[in-house]
Amino acid sequence: MRSTFKLLFYINRSKVKTDGTTAVMCRISIDGKSSTLATGIYCRPDAWNAQKGIIKSERDNNQLTAFRRRLEQTYEHILKEQGVVSSELLKNTVAGVNSIPTCLLKAGEVEIERLRIRSTEINSTTTYRQSKLSQLNLQEFLRSRGMEDISFTDITGEFGESFKTYMKTVHERKPGYINKCITWLNRLIYIAIDQEVLRSNPLEDVRYEKKEPARHRYISKNDLKRIMETPMPEPRMELVRRAFIFSSLTGLAYVDMHRLYPHHIGKTAEGRLYIRKQRVKTNVEAFIPLHPIAGQILSLYNTIDGSKPVFPLPVRDMIWYDINQIGITMKLKENLSYHQSRHSFGTLLISAGVSIESIAKMMGHANISTTQGYARITDTKISADMDKLLIRRNTNSQSIAI
Q1: Distance (Å, rounded) from C-alpha 110 to C-alpha 370?
Q2: pTM of the full predicted structure?
Q3: Could you tell me which residues are beta bridge partners of residue 274?
Q4: How far apart are CA 220 and CA 212, in angstroms?
Q5: CA–CA separation, 207 vs 67, rounded Å?
Q6: Which residues form the signal peptide (predicted)?
Q7: pLDDT tens string 214-228
Q8: What is the per-residue pLDDT across 359-385, written as a single tens digit (0 to 9) for each?
Q9: d(CA 345, CA 250)
Q10: Helices (DSSP H) in 52-103: which residue ranges?
């Protein structure tokens, strides 16, 4: 049974500090028992609206709103993890993160915890996992300087530039990875600015690295055919194999497959099946006429119950592991990843002579320049194939001359 949970914010007008402000307090009530917690926020008594439990000053009230949200999120998290929560447990849990962090790594820890809670709400751990990696990189960098943490006020442009250099030289990271770490660093800086720990961003002159052109990894037509011809003995692996094939023939990314429902499937007047769906990443509608093999796979799963997705896919981390195992089983040269299916779809269509405009519509690209990346892949492949042909001809000519 869900517990009763209430929050009451108030001030004690009889306890006013010499600067004329008084502390904003919070009474947490759960199942009839209550605990009192200091919010760490202060206001003048005449700025307090007792009826609404808010501060008239917008800046101070924003802090109070954030504190309320933190209490509510922590309550939901404890209830989900432990099944039971008391006012004292909630108070003690929140008290550990109550004060505003003034140091970089400490602020990162608080933000990562917030992202962890958020990841369970939206059923996506991508941002949370990437943020943890960036936090670890910051931690290693600070330790390389003999520091356990650094105050926000001590951060300079040199710090940002040195962090970039550290990632380039020590870890030999590529621009895309480095930029994600710099983004995380800037995120923490702007949180500090919002909480008035800093007045401005000391890293505003630190530039992001120029990214290399995107390299779309794809599988060949022959490898895709081999996967089609090799069913997996274990049910979950077979589901993942079919999902990979379906994505290779439709260009749907994992998240779009995960959120594919029967109402996204239609049929033309000629009886041709198609998918019409907005992509989660770009919010652009994709229109995909279905290949006959994709239609066969579709017929094996849910196309009737609108309350359930078409494919009962496992969570992202699990499917990534399973598809990699399929690649090992097939003895493919490169590690197989699920997203290769989408890249394979674009590359195969380009190779088949389908127009860039049609491919962009099927893949739900927001910008046609993204689609043109597949054309560059094909041009590179053609050049490489021609080089191989020339080498073979030269070898044959020398053999004949001998």
Answers
A1: 36
A2: 0.51
A3: 266, 289
A4: 23
A5: 33
A6: none
A7: 555 678 888 889 999
A8: 888 888 777 776 666 655 554 444 555
A9: 7
A10: 58-82, 87-95
